[in-house]
Amino acid sequence: MIQTYFGNGKGKTTAAVGSAVRCAGCGNKVLFVQFLKNNDSAEFNVLSEIKSIDVLYSNEYYELYDNLNKDRTPALTKAYNKLLFKDTKNKADTYQMIILDEILDAVEYGYISEDNLLELLAELKAHSEIILTGHNLTEKIADESDYISEIKEISHPYTKGVSPREGIEF
Q1: Cβ(96)–Cβ(32) under 8 Å?
Q2: Given CA atoms 77, 80, 81, 82 in this order, what sign does their dihedral have?
Q3: CB under 8 Å to 76, separation ≥6 — which residues?
Q4: Considering Cα of 169, then 5, then 59, then 72, what sign does the dihedral take?
Q5: Count of CB atoms within 10 A of residue 170's CB?
Q6: What's the pLDDT tens digit per position in 130-155?
Q7: Measuring CA to CA, which residue among 42, 43, 79 is closest to residue 59?
Q8: pTM (predicted TM-score)
Q9: CA-CA distance, 39 to 54, in Å (whole number)?
């Protein structure tokens, strides 16, 4: 099945991490694939210590708001397509859960083709639970999702000028 966590609120990756821990806690293998982030977010410290969770991310460093820098699009497109269609696909059949964190944003910014992603998801869901996260959900991806949870921001400290806090937002 495919689970999708989307919206502008805090907690999409947190929900995915919780699902990864639950799945691993039952003795299953989890592949956690990160898009539009690097391994400098604190969840990687914990996830990489759990022997049944493997974490993949691109070696192409992503800067905040790189999606606005069109000069970066070719490099990020190449890196994320390799990450998804080579690295993830080649390992996928050994995992009971595959998390594609921020994949919805990678599709929105044009780094990943939505149709190619949907084709891959059809293959992956035959043997793995799939979790997708990101800000905006397309109609096509919604149609393929079995669970959809919208995480909506009601209030957030950054609107009051508070910078992201280590251990809380990253």
Answers
A1: no
A2: positive
A3: 58, 60, 62, 66, 109, 111
A4: negative
A5: 12
A6: 999 999 999 999 999 999 999 998 88
A7: 79
A8: 0.90
A9: 12
- Give the strands of the sheet with 30-34, arranged side by side: 53-57, 30-34, 97-101, 129-134, 2-6, 147-150
Calculated CA dihedral for residues 34, 37, 43, 48, nearest 10 degrees: 50
Domains with residue ranges and CATH for the chain: 2-160 (3.40.50.300)
The DSSP bridge partners found for residue 148 are: 4
Q: How many CB atoms lie within 10 A of CB 66?
A: 18
Amino acid at 80: Y
pLDDT digits (tens, 9 = 90+) for 55-75: 998 877 777 666 777 887 888
Structure tokens at 141: 């991806």
